[in-house]
Design a protein that fits this description.
Uridine Diphospho-n-acetylenolpyruvylglucosamine Reductase, domain 3, eight-stranded antiparallel β-sheet, five-stranded antiparallel β-sheet, globular, binds flavin-adenine dinucleotide
Length: 475
């Protein structure tokens, strides 16, 4: 229970209308409503409208030693915005302005609570020649959390994970100080993370436990006049993956390369899970679907790129369909494939995801598939090839019924099992990891690395008020 005097102090910062300790409001923020993770407690929610207000809130939280949790939509799938130790949830959705678009250096400066829909709408209206990435998460989710948590979108082949799309940040530290990192710390331009030491890493991969980002510059890309989306179908994942890796290194104007399996594809059809086959083998269907997007500046260049893509797929025995031809098989991109979760089946969904070497995609799939089938769950596999083929993200989604405690138990056990097995693959890491998964990092890093992380956390958040109970620096 938080002293009512603190609520008055917070009301003085943002206005009465934007602070609440009412149960129906607290309920909205107390958990990630789709995961199998335990619930938390939100004592107060608050909606600031400027970086200065965020600063005042963090200073008050320091004075009273109350936890502060940055929040945009709270559906990150790792329950990492769930207030584990109570306190103030800072809902950033009033900070959703696009402050500047620099067409020459191709970036947008946005506020910390800007959603994908906010930016997309703004660009379509004001800068139609530029595009941001398109995520598969719902349009109302936050861009800054996605980028800070190594999210990914449909420009991943060009730019890498969301973290690599960040040019610079303005941040209120856990101490209440305001800092800028990147070129914006010395200039009016936010073109990159040069030339001082790259401090953006103090906020990337920390799950909001070192500070609240109030502004970020995010890379944009030119919208090319010619574009084609292909679906390549193959019998098995191990036959399809090498073709996708070959494509990633062939310089064919490819901006997105995604691999999904039969389980993912059939779930997207929103069929009743009980009536569909759990696995491609059972259904006697091809298991591999590759989604390929290419773009070009001239028609001739475009034709040549498309022809080469088809040729490489043919050599690898994949059947290629253009978006138009494949419209009956897959939704034509750009798309938001969140239908794969089919929340109508009881509303629960969680994944265990990893960044890994391109060498480990097939190994990850095989072990995750086996574990899913053992627990009678559909293995929904997804992998995206990033940064011109330098690395990949791979993950397995699990649907479950939130009203069925047995299913929640199975889901938790299954995710942990996949996670543990995946640790055996060389160089595997996680993204947006729930707390139980973060703990396992500490057994793997050098003691001095763990110590360094803890020292940084203490420096930036001396009273341990930032999203406590979450993130890598938490003890
Ligand atoms: C169906 C579905 C599909 C999805 N597909 C994708 C996908 O294709 N790609 C992808 O990247 N993600 C995907 N996601 C995951 C997720 O929705 C996104 O990563 C999203 O951007 C998270 O935004 P959020 O607003 O829910 O973040 P939140 O849950 O509010 O926050 C996530 C974390 O960031 C911290 N945080 C939030 N704002 C700030 C800030 N301003 N400063 C510091 N820390 C902050 C929070 O404390 C928390 O630790 C998907 C989710 C769903 C439900």
């Amino acid at each position: 229970m938080i002293d009512s005097k603190i609520i008055v102090e917070l009301e003085n910062v943002v206005g009465k209308k934007y602070v609440s300790d009412q149960p129906e409001i607290q309920f909205l923020y107390h958990y990630d409503f789709v995961t199998a993770e335990p619930e938390g407690i939100c004592d107060i929610s608050i909606m600031p409208n400027s970086a200065e207000e965020v600063q005042e809130i963090v200073k008050l939280a320091n004075k009273h030693k109350i936890p502060v949790v940055p929040w945009v939509s709270g559906i990150n799938f790792g329950s990492i915005a769930t207030p584990r130790k109570g306190g103030i949830v800072v809902d950033l959705r009033r900070l959703n302005r696009v402050l500047e678009v620099n067409e020459d250096d191709m970036y947008a400066v946005i506020e910390g609570g800007t959603t994908w829909a906010d930016l997309q709408g703004y660009l379509e209206k004001n800068h139609p020649g530029l595009r941001a990435g398109i995520t598969w998460s719902p349009p109302g989710t936050g861009i800054v959390p996605s980028c800070l948590c190594y999210g990914m979108f449909d420009l991943g082949m060009l730019g890498g994970s969301g973290a690599e799309f960040i040019n610079g940040l303005e941040v209120v530290l856990g101490s209440g100080d305001l800092v800028k990192v990147g070129s914006c710390s010395l200039s009016n331009y936010w073109y990159g993370r040069q030339p001082l030491p790259d401090l953006a890493g103090l906020f990337i991969g920390w799950e909001g436990s070192t500070g609240i980002v109030t502004k970020a510059a995010i890379k944009l890309w030119p919208k090319m006049p010619f574009r084609e989306d292909f679906a390549a179908l193959g019998l098995t994942i191990d036959k399809g993956v090498p073709v996708m890796l070959k494509l990633s290194k062939a310089g064919l104007g490819i901006c997105d390369l995604v691999i999904v399996n039969f389980g993912w594809g059939s779930s997207v059809q929103e069929l009743n899970e009980k009536n569909i086959a759990k696995d491609a083998k059972e259904a006697n269907m091809p298991d591999f679907v590759g989604l390929i997007t290419t773009q070009a500046y001239t028609e001739k260049q475009h034709e040549a790129q498309c022809e080469a893509i088809k040729e490489i797929c043919k050599e690898g025995n994949l059947r290629v369909l253009s978006a138009q031809e494949g419209a009956e098989v897959i939704t034509p991109p750009p798309m938001q494939l969140w239908g794969c979760w089919n929340f109508s089946r009881g509303g629960g969904g969680q994944w265990v995801g990893t960044y890994c070497s391109t060498r480990d995609i097939v190994k990850f799939y095989n072990l995750a598939r086996e574990i899913c089938l053992k627990h009678e769950k559909i293995p929904q596999f997804y992998s995206r090839i990033l940064f011109g083929g330098h690395y990949v993200v791979a993950r397995t989604n699990i649907n479950f019924n939130k009203n069925n405690p047995e299913e929640i138990k199975t889901t938790r056990a299954l995710l942990k099992e996949i996670h543990e097995e995946v640790q055996q693959l060389g160089g595997v890491v996680m993204y947006k990891p729930p707390k139980w998964a973060v703990q396992t990092y500490k057994n793997r890093t050098l003691p001095a690395t763990t110590e360094l992380i803890e020292k940084i956390k203490k420096l930036l958040d001396p009273n341990n008020i930032m999203n406590p109970g979450q993130g890598i620096g938490d003890d």
